[in-house]
Structure prediction request, 160 residues.
Amino acid sequence: MIDPLIAAADATGVPYEIFLCDPELADTVAFCEAYGFTMEQSANTILVVGKVEPPVHAACVVLAHTRLDVNKAVRKRLGVKKASFAPADATLDITGMQIGGVTPFGLPGSLPLWVDARVMDVERIVLGGGSRDRKVLAAPEILVALGAEVVDDLAKEPPS
Prediction:
């Protein structure tokens, strides 16, 4: 059986590296501390849900030191009055991945993929690897090659 992450990453034509990690250290802060990466290099893939019937979803990629703007940018892009982070069970059902391992590679084709423009300014990013025991290291151009839409101000800088 072909690994969907590997198949999707290979199809981009952009060089990447699989980085194996301890599943107990998959959450961003713990991962960065344990393996020497910065929050500014780490890009989280977050599933969001628009609260309408039927619900609408999108996957968003933002740098770990920023905060996804769910209440304005995401809600507006989804065209809904209310939006939130998708719960862990919905994330698993829709993506087949657990929180801490969600990756933009191998997502359902019907799921929009939006990337905060700040991600594109980083030389090399760390992304979830589809499971909690691996990450993907690559240039952010790999996201555009996947078909992601780059969005200005999808995330906000945290208050200083």
In short: The beta strands are 16-20, 43-50, 56-63, 67-68, 83-85, 113-116, 125-128, 134-138, 149-151, 155-156.
